[in-house]
Design a protein that fits this description.
The protein is mostly helical. About 70% of the residues lie in helices and about 0% in strands. The protein contains twelve helices and no strands. Helix 2 runs antiparallel to helix 4, helix 6 packs antiparallel against helix 7 and helix 7 runs parallel beside helix 9. The longest helix is centred in the C-terminal third of the chain and has 16 residues. The radius of gyration is 19 Å and the shape is globular.
Length: about 190
């Protein structure tokens, strides 16, 4: 657990190359140690190693890492949460919305990589995005749809479902605006 500098980077790259999943626990401990968090590049390499080893770290672990440095850790945390499910990964975006170009640019390659993910079909991804867009910001959902046009996420259905969910939570029947009256939002 006592690695430093270039040696640490080399050892972590070797760890990834070996693919020894038993090393995930010591790597996680290192990532959670303040000493390694002070070196941003080394800390990022530790997190990358965890995702490469397919280590199923707790959701709270990845959320904490994202809070530590959203711009640098968003993509790796999103990838790490895929060990749980696409729904869990997308749920991270409720805590860290894609409201800046930097965050969108950081996550774009990871989103594109989802299309080739060996564990999730395009239909799995389409369903996860549609489900999660009920609770994510409209801006985040628009970005997801534009980053993954192959999935043909139905924005109109998502908008309809979002209003239905809001009406159900608020107990409002017939008083809330209907999605059809808001189609101008989709044309913009």
């Amino acid at each position: 657990d006592d690695w430093a500098g270039d040696t640490a980077h080399s050892l972590l790259l070797l760890t990834m190359d070996l693919g020894e999943r038993d090393l995930a626990e010591p790597v996680r401990r290192m990532a959670q140690t303040e000493r390694y968090a002070e070196d941003a590049a080394l800390h990022a390499r530790l997190l990358q190693t965890l995702t490469f080893l397919d280590a199923k770290m707790p959701v709270a672990f990845w959320k904490q890492e994202t809070k530590r440095n959203p711009e640098q850790h968003l993509a790796v945390a999103f990838t790490g949460l895929l060990a749980h499910s696409p729904h869990v990964s997308l749920g991270l975006l409720a805590d860290v919305p894609l409201d800046t170009e930097e965050r969108q640019a950081a996550l774009y390659p990871t989103l594109r990589g989802l299309l080739a993910h060996p564990d999730y079909s395009w239909e799995d991804l389409r369903v996860a995005i549609t489900d999660c867009c009920l609770t994510l910001s409209a801006e985040t959902c628009d970005f997801l749809a534009s980053a993954l046009p192959e999935l043909d996420v139905n924005q109109t259905q998502t908008l309809t479902d979002r209003y239905a969910a809001a009406r159900a939570v608020l107990g409002v029947h017939g008083l809330a605006p209907q999605p059809e009256s808001l189609n101008y939002a989709l044309a913009a």
